[in-house]
Amino acid sequence: VYIINVTWSDLTSQIIYRRYSKFFDLQMQLLDKFPIEGGQKDPKQRIIPFLPGKILFRRSHVRDVAVKRLKPIDEYCRALVRLPPHISQCDEVFRFFEARPEDLNPPKE
């Protein structure tokens, strides 16, 4: 589970918790919604950042994998919010970064 401190344009901030699978779901939604910006027709036109890849691991290595992905996940989030507004402010991105009821009782791992 990744802990993300979200600061909105009105300077309010909140802590959210997201599993890698939620980042992956967001990435798939963005690539589907924005095929040109995702580089599907021409890889040179890709502006949607790459998400760190899935890693197969044994259950005992979950934490190690999460730690290795920490910097790339941070870079991914920062790149995402710097994209043009039609992507960075789309519903999918807003929903991903919005606080959810489960953020009040975050998962342990």
UniProtKB/TrEMBL annotation:
Segments forming a coiled coil: none
Lineage of source species: Eukaryota, Metazoa, Chordata, Craniata, Vertebrata
Gene Ontology biological-process entries: superoxide anion generation
Residues annotated as domain PX: 1-104
UniProt name for this protein: SPD2A protein
SUPFAM superfamilies reported for this sequence: PX domain
Keyword Transferase part of the UniProt annotation: no
Gene source species: Geococcyx californianus
Molecular function as annotated in GO: phosphatidylinositol binding; superoxide-generating NADPH oxidase activator activity
Record's keyword annotation contains Repeat: yes
GO cellular component: cytoplasm
Top-level lineage group: Eukaryota
InterPro entries: NADPH_Oxidase/PX-Domain (IPR051228), PX_dom (IPR001683), PX_dom_sf (IPR036871)
Keywords per UniProt: Repeat
